[in-house]
Amino acid sequence: MLPPPPFNLDEPGTIEFTARRALEGQALNRFALSLRKPDNRAAFLADEAAYMRAADLSDDEIDLVRQRDWTGLMRAGGHLQSVLKLAATVGQDLWHVGAHNAGCTKDELVAACPRRVTGLPGSDG
After folding, report:
1. 3-state helix vs strand vs coil in the chain, percent to 5
2. Residue 78 and residue 70: Cα distance in Å, rounded?
C-alpha cells in the first residue's frame, strides 16, 4: 500500500503548469493534441520518429516521448490533457500517468485509491 501523499504541493511532487511551462511546451502540446485525429494517431504509430520530427519536437522531447516519461513530459511543458492524448494513443491512461508521477505501478496506484467507481463500461460493478 502506498503511503498517504504529503500535503506539500510544491515541486517536485506537484508540477505546476505555469505560463513559462506553457511557452516551453508549445511544440510538445501541439504534437500531442494532434493525436486527437485518427489519421494522425495512425501516422504516429506507424513511424513515431518521423511524426515527431515533422512536429518539430526537440531531441529531448523526442526522448521523453520514446521513454513514455509522463512526468518528464509535464515538466517539459506538456499539459496533462495533451499528455493524456499521447498516453491513450500508446494504450495507456490516466492511471499510468499518475502512477509514473507517484513512482509506483498502475496496480499499486489503483489499490491505494480508497474510492471505487462501479457501473462504468468495462468495470466489474
Report:
1. 60, 0, 40
2. 9
Asked if 3 and 13 touch (Cβ cutoff 8 Å), the reply is: no
**61 closest CA partner among 48, 52, 92:** 52
Burial class (CB in 10 A: 0-12, 13-18, 19+), 59: exposed
- Distance between CA atoms of residues 16 and 22, nearest Å: 10
Rounded to whole angstroms, the Cα distance separating 53 from 32 reads: 13
Closest CA to 63 of 54, 74, 52: 52
- Tell me the per-residue pLDDT of 81-98, one tens digit each, with 9 for 90 and over: 999 999 999 999 999 998
Residue 8 pLDDT level (bands cut at 50, 70, 90): low
pTM of this prediction?
A: 0.80
Q: Residue written as cell 462504468?
A: 120
46 in Cβ contact with 39 (< 8 Å): no
